[in-house]
Description:
The complex is a heterodimer. Chain A has helices at 2-5, 11-31, 37-59, 61-83, 94-115, 123-153, 160-163, 213-225, 229-250, 258-263, 269-301, 305-330, 340-352, 354-360, 367-397, 411-422, 427-434, 458-478, 484-503, 507-511, 513-540, 550-571, 579-608, 617-624, and strands at 170-174, 188-192.
Amino acid sequence: MDEFESKLPVSGVKNHVFEACHxxxxxxxxxxxxxxxxxxxLLSDLESHLSTFGIADTKVEDTGFSEIxxxxxxxxxxxxxxxxxxxxxxxSGPSEADHFFQALYEVQTVVMGFKAxxxxxxxxxxxxxxxxxxxxxxxxxxxxKELYDVLHQHKQCVQPEYLAVSSRRKDIVYDESFVxxxxxxxxxxxxxHEDDEQISEFCNSDLIDPSVLPHIKAIANTMFACExxxxxxxxxxxxxxxxxxxxxxxxxxxxxxxxxxxxxxxxDLKLNGAMREWTRVVKNISHVYLPSExxxxxxxxxxxxxxxxxxxxxxxxxxxxxxxxxxxxxxxRPCQPEMLERFLSxxxxxxxxxxxxxxxxxxxxxxxxxxAFHELSKHLADHTTATFLKFKNAIALNESAHPFPGGGVxxxxxxxxxxxxxxxxxxxxxxxxxxxxxxxDSIPEKTGQDVLPLTFSPMARHLRSIVTTLESNLERxxxxxxxxxxxxxxxxxxxxxxxQKVKGSELRHLFGDEWIxxxxxxxQRDVTNYERSTWSSILAxxxxxxxxxxxxxxxxxRLFSLAFDDVYKKQTRWLVPDPELRDDLHISTSVKVxxxxxxxxxxxxxxxxxxxxxxxxxxxxxxxxxxxxxxPSSRSLRSSRRR
Amino acid sequence: MRxxxxxxxxxxxxISIRRNQFVDVNNEQEQExxxxxxxxxxxxxxxxxxxxxxxxxxxxDETNTVAPVAATExxxxxxxxxxxxxxxxxxxxxxxxxxxxxxxxTQISKPPxxxxxxxxxxxxxxxxxxxxxxxNGIDSVRHYxxxxxxxxxxxxxxxxxxxxxxxxKRALANLLVALSLEDKENVSGGGGGGGGGNKTTERSxxxxxxxxxxxxxxxGGATIGQLKSSSWAVGRNWxxxxxxxxxxxxxxxxxxxxxxxxxxxxxxMSTVMxxxxxxLTAAVPxxxxxxxxxxxxxxxxxxxxxxxxxxxxxxIGDEWKKKEKKGxxxxxxxxxxxxxxxxxLMEFADGFHYPAEKDAxxxxxxxxxxxxxxxxxxEEELVPLQQQxxxxxxxxxxxxxxxxxxxxxxxxxxxxxx
Lengths: 643, 418
């Protein structure tokens, strides 16, 4: 340090130094209009000092330089004092911070000043320069640490729940795969999630406490001015990248390899969880987190535009690629119809975020990420469409070997209709996917009373076509019944179920009134068919011929009772699960049967004789109510109802 | 190919060919295609093994140009790796044409293809994961590049002061530690840098990067952070070495009748794929590679098409074995040179006394220029290489989809692949 005490003898050199200093200060100011207050003050201080030196210099050269030396020594001391101080400069308050930055600029000024000099300076000057480079490096390293510390300490949590984009719909859990549908009970549970939880409109949240931004910006500007820009970026990127990694951990987004995704079963909870999580995370990340990150980069590095976007890409790339990879991996899976809904929701999100993504990765350096998102969306679109079409195929190919017991609603019908019920919420998405795919539709023209455009949308046409496929499959299944009546019950049940599902959901607008009317008429025909096939021959026993002998009447009464017993035994084991339909059936059967029987008894009871009449009209009426209740098979006509 | 034809050199054989000519028109065409395919594979890899030197600029341009041009084409250089990607894409396109074009779909669903095709698709899925891991590994290389750039910036300062050297040393120490890291080595446990660098590392990290005061992170914050995230690229417990091993598990050259037909190009293409993936894994940092050298997919030496591939294989394999002993982030030629330069610049920095001695400074300046040149090339080529690898990824995805589609047409879509 002793050398510092001596004075620089060459006044010309000194002038160079001052000129260079002036130049540096000016350049620094010009480089940034938004210098923070500390820095601005510092610069003007420096400038005024310099001008004093300049004046002093012309008079008493040596004093001027020794003053610089003194100040330089002080500055170095200040910087060194921070080298071992582990609290942040920020905490020490604005005046301490000022002091540090000022010292730093003194040192930098010396460095820059000497660099502008011709090479031939004397040893002492060289030593000052050398000391200054060391002090500058210490200061820069100190700022790097400061950056780490401040970014860590003032990180703000982005609350996942605050950002939660709810799965806005009901999740249906299919416990059975489509292919194993036939003879096992399908449990279809509708578990409703929290209702429409709106995502707060495009919300940038602050990843870093805004009050420390000026400080960080000052660090950035200083480090950039001293050509430590790379060090700044490295530190900034590594902290922010780590923060993003942590955020992903809080979102439970695990990384899977393609092999993992492909080897998992379709109903693997881990896979399904990951897929659901993915839609949520991709939305959050592209809609909230990354825009906030980008904003942070711009706030801090906005003056160095290309650096700002390069940093942003470095911070986000790894996470973004991992999300893209999961999407690509999912699109490699076979097009299992069971997964349609999940593919749909993933595709929907991938299409939805494209605008966000385009804004995030606007420039050339981000173009490959932008393109990757567009590609992914296309792959998911293709995959989803293929799965949708496969859904129809799977319905067509579903075969049964045995008639469905009891004539109730077949699992396939339940499965398909419950699945279809999920789809209207994706109407826009599905319409865009199916736009150019032709399909045979039962309502080819816009005729009749249906006026809603929705009814004639590509999705509506495809859904009707899917149901048509289902219906022909059901007709095939119905052929398996030996009993005509049971066949009618089976068809009636299933068609009624279809219509009810359509009427009771968003599907009704898609299918249209005309379709619904036609289909109601369709199962009404089955009701008529049933009545004819079960009751026509039985009721024929009760019609009067004029010359009936007592014996004939008694025979007929006995035969009627036997036939009724037979029907009762069989049809109480059949099932009409829809209560309304069951009531209708009970009433219409009752009206016909009881009326005929009452008339028959009214005319002939006395001749037949009471002991030959097994059932009263009330008996018949009551017993008919047991039909289609799917009573246990052991149960037969109850004694209490016997005479 | 040859042996199959020789067998039919007899008169009877010729007659039988005639008799079957009606059926064999396609076969003959196919034979031709297959031979051409093998020839192209051989040519492409021969070119990779000993590249034809590009047109030298007129000699007026003396010293500067010659060395870099030669270096760029060297095996495992980033330029070479990019060329390798192109070669892969060409081979793949040609292979797919042979496999699918104008072919009766049922043909590739019958034995032995009902086994060979799923095995091939299975390999391709594993290749996808390797692509992902490698893209991530290249990100680590870009991190090394940035460290090297810091050293370059510092050492380019004139006059070179102690402060600049101090800064350069810090960057070099980080660079050397990162370059010599083994995949799963826990850095916070102990310094990885060799010899003289070690002490410097300790010193340079005794300060700063103490994120939030935690002492575990006090050493090499940025470096470790990078590695941490790269080790997660493909998912927990994923291992590049195991994937490569699994890809080679059922990869055997077709025998007997099969050797003359479609199984042959399938074997070739699979070999090429495994080879390319293996090269990539060895070139850049990659998740879990222990024993990578033992999983070499060595095709039988007598096969013509495989000669150059085996040549490249041996070269890289030897390097890997050497490197594996002392720990290395990757064999990419630029990284190797970067490491060498890093060590010698570190030596220069350690012995530096201000003001710089003229001779030492001059030789250091030359090395700094070389380092700067490497950084420049990395800057130009690493991102395009990443993009090419993603292209490879997408190509594999697309081909797999096309093959599955054909299989489905054949009505024999068996259980989903993998």
